[in-house]
Amino acid sequence: FEMYHDFSVAKVLDQFYVGELVTHELPVYPESGEFAKTLKKRVKDHFKQLGVNPKNGTWTILRYLIFLIVIFSSWYLQTFVYRDHLVGCTIVTFVFALFTTFGTMNATHDCSHFSVTHKPWVWRLLGSWHDFITGMSEYVWTNQHIIGHHLYTNVDKADPDIVSTVKDVPDLRRIKKTQTWFPRYFYQHIYMPILYGLLGTKTRITELLILFVYRRNGTLKIAKTSTAHWCLFFGGKVFYYTYRILIPLWVGMPVSQLLSLVFLCDVLASYYLALIFQFSHVNTNVQWPLPDENKVIQADWWEMQIQTCLDYATDSWFVTFMAGTLNHHTAHHVFPYVHQCYLPLVTPIVRKTCEDFGIKYNCCATVWDAFSSHVQHLKHLGHDYKPERSKHEVSMLKQKTY
User: Fold this and answer.
1) pTM for this model (two decimals)
2) Which whole-number Å values give the CA distances from 333 to 267, 317, 339, in the listed order?
3) Tens digit of each residue's pLDDT (9 = 90 or more) over 16-25
């Protein structure tokens, strides 16, 4: 609640108070301290001074329309104009993949954080982009990204973005010291950056398992899916596979060529999105908070966001544009309701407030530095022969041989 509202508004919740939780399944945080109150006040005052509504991004809707026009124009060229010309077809596939990714980083991401306008119907409309244009579930994305990742950033067994085991099967990479070390991790800094290209394919499979088999994403339970969400899910799948698969086949595109282009598009988009998000949370600079025996995080939520995020190339307008402003990741995490076009205005305030309170602000000067930090983290954890094993993983190691 405090993530999206002023602290003063939180008093409204007092009328709904029913008592304190005796037990809790997921970690909890101590009350927000002076750092959080000061930071929120400074950002609020800054936007007020500028006379800017942080949810009304400049040219936002026009940008979304441009993305849509380019996406379907490149799809039309790929399907009807260049289907018999491999080079031309490949080029427009690159364009299609790039702008589909832009749409995901902008429209889908903005609406999931309610950071574009104050109108719920706009959020729902933009959210359908993920289902209809990319063929992936907005419902699963929102549960993972908003309810999971942003609340429990880098918290072991809580953040679904860093899940390290699925049904007792260890992950392909080791990014936390609490994970059991296996010999294959020795080369993870080499093979993982290559495998990031399969993220899209993995997501298409795992979202089906999450919705129809597990009913949870990591330790995060999935709430009962409403009829509206089921309609969006199945309607999106029908639309996506019709325009991406059935229509190209109907006009005579060879099956092998079509599947190759669809896979190429997924690989390109996967690299783009995976690296942007991996830079920000899996690197040598950030912290990996561990709750105490009572499942309490030692830092409040605001300080923890600063500790678990990394900014990079924040002075580069080109990187900021290409990354959908997510290179200003710390500002995004502490102010998710602020439209991304305003995040560069927030970053200096975050940096200065961190300095005033003696809190380390994580930032790399260039994209290459951020990439190097990510690879070094993989290498370090892959070469660490003495991991801090959890009781559960020690039990797994005794039961299975890998």
Assistant:
1) 0.90
2) 27, 20, 12
3) 888 877 778 8
* Residues 123, 127: Cα–Cα separation, whole Å: 6
Other Cβ atoms closer than 10 A to 113: 22
- Taking only the tens place, the pLDDT of each residue in 55-78 is 887 678 888 999 999 999 999 999
